[in-house]
């Protein structure tokens, strides 16, 4: 059963559309896995593992989103003025 859940989480992470979403999903997966291991080892209970997974997943998603590279490019219009646009 664990293998199916791990595979489903991995496929969900690959289903992200943009690099920012991929980075956020990857961070959430890594954080949730690490949090579940630490929570389970610290408490010795399934509830601790679930709480660790929830906290780690949220923290990993936030960090993954914050560290994703920006996709803002700089160009020039016909008058030579610089402007920013999303690449």
Pick out the low-confidence regions: none
Strand elements, count: 2
Q: Going across the major beta sheet, what is the strand order? A: 1-2
Span of the ends, CA to CA: 41 Å
**Mean pLDDT reading:** 84
How can the largest sheet be summarized? 2 strands, antiparallel
Helix content: 55-70%
Question: Could you spell the SSE succession in H and E letters?
Answer: HHHEE
Strand content: 5-15%
Shape: elongated
How many alpha or pi helices? 3
Total domain count? 1
InterPro entries: Gly-zipper (IPR039567)
Organism: Bosea caraganae
Protein name: Glycine zipper domain-containing protein
Pfam families: Gly-zipper_Omp (PF13488)
Give a short summary of the structure:
The chain is built from three helices and two strands. It has 87 residues and is mainly α.
How are the secondary structure elements laid out?
Blueprint: H1 2-14, H2 19-43, H3 46-66, E1 72-76, E2 82-86
Antiparallel strand pairs: 1-2
Helix pairs in contact: 1-2, 2-3
InterPro entries: Gly-zipper (IPR039567)
Domain Glycine zipper: 26-67
Organism: Bosea caraganae
Which features characterize this protein?
single chain; 87 residues; mainly alpha; two-stranded antiparallel sheet
What does this molecule look like?
It is a single chain. This protein has 87 residues and is mostly helical. It has helices spanning 2-14, 19-43, 46-66; strands spanning 72-76, 82-86. A hairpin with a 5-residue loop joins strand 1 and strand 2 (82-86). It has one domain. The protein has a two-stranded antiparallel ribbon with strand order 1-2.
């Amino acid at each position: 059963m664990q293998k199916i859940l791990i595979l489903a989480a991995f496929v969900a992470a690959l289903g992200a559309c943009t690099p920012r979403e991929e980075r956020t999903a990857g961070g959430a997966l890594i954080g949730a896995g690490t949090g579940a291991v630490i929570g389970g080892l610290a408490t010795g209970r399934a509830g601790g593992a679930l709480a660790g997974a929830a906290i780690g997943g949220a923290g990993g998603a936030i960090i993954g989103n914050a560290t994703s590279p920006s996709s803002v490019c700089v160009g020039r219009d016909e008058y030579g003025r610089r402007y920013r646009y999303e690449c």
